């Protein structure tokens, strides 16, 4: 998404062989990398090539770096090509049976209806029979799917009422997990104690068995004289019984050890599950508290109270102190609510859509007007977000990437602005 372009400009290469990644129009690379490869795939490639990509790098930064490297057949692009072929080999074989543009279109339509997109999308874009119009059509489908996924964030507000119930449920699950963990821990300790006792008894039996073997060795000379007699037969049966008992006890010890290892694995799994439940509960509480603060501070005032003084409508808990907040990207339908929220917090909101409707050349001018910049990473172009981040770094301005374009993420971002400005002063 680095250039402004029209899908009608796509010109697929005419060849009898399937296209390589770098042979496809570079303006399609963003959709191909974002749809057909996961971030885990990209980090795996980075590890294989010893690329300097830290674990805490922002996801859109990782995505942008690989998109920028896909246009020429160098190490990164070749590694992505290999990963795409290996990961989507089933879809590639399926589309390989198609010989015409119509065949490819029918396959793509069927896969799209079934919700199978990543593999078929790569197979379509790399297929030699795919026409320019079909590539444009498929790109449009994937582009709209990304919008639909982004639009699902509109349910965040509706989820507010459900968060309390979810919090209670998570708390109950956490308590149950702790109780189960304690029970399993006690059970494991009992089994370990039983295992220790069993091992002691086995060692004692093993000692007696070895003593018996020594006694058998001492009478080997006597056995030679009584091979055909009753005493020899008795000693042989005794030796056989002792060996059998030793084998049985050894097998029993191995079974107990295997059981102990299994219980230890279950304990580790429950501990990991407990940790995940705790984090989920903490995230839910943080989001609920942020939205509770907004509602408590009366940031959203009914129209019949518009005549009240500005001081009465401002939040005592969230005071921006007259700061100008630049909001880059987001959903246009929510900008009015966000503007009202900022004004109630004694601030000013300046919005730039990230280049969708307003020319991106004006972005720098808008960024210069603000004291802090907020950017929802799920609803903004890569180029606009990168430019905003670099501008803030050069001009020592606060830059806060938001998890989503929802109101809860925006409120948390405003709280970070107040906190960051407080540390500076």
Describe the fold and architecture.
The protein has 17 helices and 4 strands. With 425 residues, it is mostly helical. The chain folds into 3 domains: 149 residues, no CATH class; 137 residues, Helix Hairpins (Orthogonal Bundle); 122 residues, 3-Layer(aba) Sandwich (Rossmann fold), CATH 3.40.50. The chain has a 4-stranded parallel β-sheet with strand order 2-1-3-4, with helices on both faces. Helix 14 links the parallel strand 1 and strand 2. Helix 2 crosses helix 4, helix 10 runs antiparallel to helix 12 and helix 12 crosses helix 17. The radius of gyration is 34 Å and the shape is elongated. The protein starts with 28 loop residues before the first helix and ends with a helix.
Main beta-sheet strand count, sense and barrel state:
4 strands, parallel
Gross morphology is elongated
Helix content estimate: 55-70%
Q: Determine the structural class based on helices, strands and strand pairing.
A: mainly alpha
The total of helices stands at 17
Give the termini separation.
Answer: 38 Å
**What integer is the average pLDDT?**
82
